[in-house]
Fold each of these.
Amino acid sequence: MKKIILACAIAASATFSLPSFAAPAAAHYSTEDSSIGDLMDNPKTKAILDKHVPGLTSAEQIDAARGMTLKAVQQFAPDTVTDDALAKIDADLAKLPAEK
């Protein structure tokens, strides 16, 4: 898990030099559009992450990946963050409205 988070942190640091434009708020949380940080900050969505990817939210270096989406993290951890896990997370997230 440490290698996954470290790889995400390195990838995320490369994007910080690019200009950032605020995207419109999503109608619902999703693995493609919601940041890991936003998902971890909401107890309901954090529980969904813990259910489908145990250990992700408690990983030692998870804070380094807070600005990334789960879909973006998948390339660094395809055996952990699988298409099946993302689909199940999205199904559970779709039941919750975004709280922004």
Note: Helices lie at 2-15, 36-41, 43-52, 70-74, 83-93.
Amino acid sequence: MRRSARPARDELRPEYDFSALKGGVRGKYHKRAIAGSNLVLLDPDVARAFPDAKTVNRTLRRVAGLTNKKATSSSR
């Protein structure tokens, strides 16, 4: 015996007024958003090692600095 389909629950709050959202343009800020962005997806184990973006950037700058120093000293 099949169960009858349950009606979908409306989980939105009654105070949400979607009539004010009319006229929106999809992708309006897309080009502007990606122009100055370089998004990188970290694996979960790597993400756990860094609490925030500032820590990631500081660590990557140090690694990049060490790599650049090593490359210049080995080319002499």
Note: Helices lie at 30-35, 44-49, 53-74.
Amino acid sequence: MRPMLLLGLAVALLAVLASLLPIYGQHVFILVALYGAVALAWNVLGGMAGQMSLGHALFVGAGAYVSTVLYLNFAVSPWVGLVVAAMVGGALGAGVGYTVFRCKLSGVYFALVTLAVAEMALHIVSNVAVLGGANGLAIPSRPDFANFQFHSKLGFCYAALGVLAVVSAVSLAIHRSRLGYVLLAIRENERSAAALGIDVVQGKVIAAAISGALAALVGPIYANYVLFIDPESVLGLPLSIDALLFAFIGGLGSLFGPLLGAVVLVPLTELLRGLLAGRLAGIHLIVYGVILILVMRLAPRGLWGLLSDAIARRPK
């Protein structure tokens, strides 16, 4: 069966599942879908192209702020803001990528540059009044489809699932296209790729643009779901680290490994918060660290690799 058809069936099944979940279950579903989308977007650049980014919160935050400011100040529908957010995220990705990659910076240097740019954006937004400054921006609660607000969490489940489906479809299309092979060649050995006639800088810039655009799609969904954004929540380093961790634990560079990482870790985080009732703040980070060490030691290809191996060993 064609992969896109399988993806469509999976989305349909998840849509049915979302309608059967209790309210808190739908909340976790939304978080898994949004974090999974960010992790898959990160994987286009960090996994497929091998360029480790520590600043993907920049794209999510840009998407959230663009959509919110357009809605609050210019009465532009968040649906339009969603498209504009993707365009801004893509432009930011291409701009940062071109600036860095044409200087032949990669590896830890690229990671540090993306971290620095994201932190600069956080501090700039924190001091700009029209963007709400450090206090953030509150979105009025006006449940209506035109305002991208729904009367129940189920509507947001479908919105988050829609974004996840788009990101998954793009990742699948890249994986099966010439661009996917170009990014694979760049990831494995840039000099060999260049010797084969591949424009390495162009390939990495394209990956950064696509990754930025896909990550920016998550911002407006999150903003309209919680009805509030501030620099720390959508531009902070923890969001960038989460995307990286989900990809590493799920399976770096694999097709849907980052999503699997989010499926495992996000509910685990919510479970720990519920059990501990606010005590031992940050305990989920310790759990993440332990899981990451175990995965790197016992399953270098991540959870997706373990799953693939288990399926391959299954008696036919």
Note: Residues 23-48 form the longest helix (26 residues).
Amino acid sequence: MNVAVQKKQYTAISPSESAVYCNSPFLDQISKEQAQYLFAYDDGRLVWRSKERRKRDDAGYEYYRKSSGQDPVWVVLLGPRGGQRLYMRRYLVWNWHYGHTDHELIPLDGNHLNDRIENIGFAGPLSKEEAAPSPAPAEQETKFGVHCPCCGGGVQVMSADLAVQVYGIPDQQARILRAVWSGKGAPVQMERVFAEMYSDDPDGGPTQDKMYKAFKVAFSHLRDKLKDSGIAIETVGYRQGYRLILERKSKNA
């Protein structure tokens, strides 16, 4: 989407006025696809889509710019371990809706914590250096033979949600994987797996016999999806359930 169309939708201010808002170190941006993969948008907030290993739903935190005396802004830390960068939420909200912009973004009401899309306006063009795509972080060796589909960094900590994304695991198989993953290597009983498989069914699912038949079919396909991934699910024993096994792999494995 070009700048001309953007200016029709949101108010721009003159370059002289923009001096009040510039000098921010957090002008890096990501693609629309990356933003929508990572977050849901909720009236100015960005909410993590994956809740695993996160203490709160809101992405980021309030950052106080004491050295410059400017108002606080909301920032989000993104990137692989060892190559993380701070991004201003205002730009991520714009990226979520429209992708990359080559203009300075400012809050129309002057409140730097109000990142609602309708409150975002323009304050003149970014410099060529600021408007350039963020440099790719140094490549890290992956411990599981895959790279994050969002940032491209080598995966250091595998999760069920990431495995579902990377290996293209469909819904019913993904539910089985998440149920077994929740055991963190300990046996997970079939009742827990069935509860996850049919969590959206107000009746709790079909008969146990039908649930088990559906499980066996989905489980067989899931094992095929996970072959050579370093992720395995093994049967613990008769009526003792299933457990997760993770084997770290190098990218050359």
Note: The chain has two domains: 3-131, 160-246.
